[in-house]
Design brief:
- The protein is built from one helix and no strands.
- With 41 residues, the protein is mostly helical.
- The protein has one domain.
Length: 41
């Protein structure tokens, strides 16, 4: 079974992952849009 410490570690790791994802996805979209615009022109 899962202990309380494992649960806390999981929540911390998951929170960090989601926090980075909130910044990474828009950044990747912006870079991809920039590349597409550069190729199109």
């Amino acid at each position: 079974m899962e202990t309380a410490n494992d649960r806390k570690a999981h929540e911390k790791t998951y929170g960090s992952f989601i926090g980075m994802l909130k910044w990474a996805v828009p950044l990747i979209v912006a870079i991809a849009a920039f590349v597409v615009l550069m190729i199109a022109s």
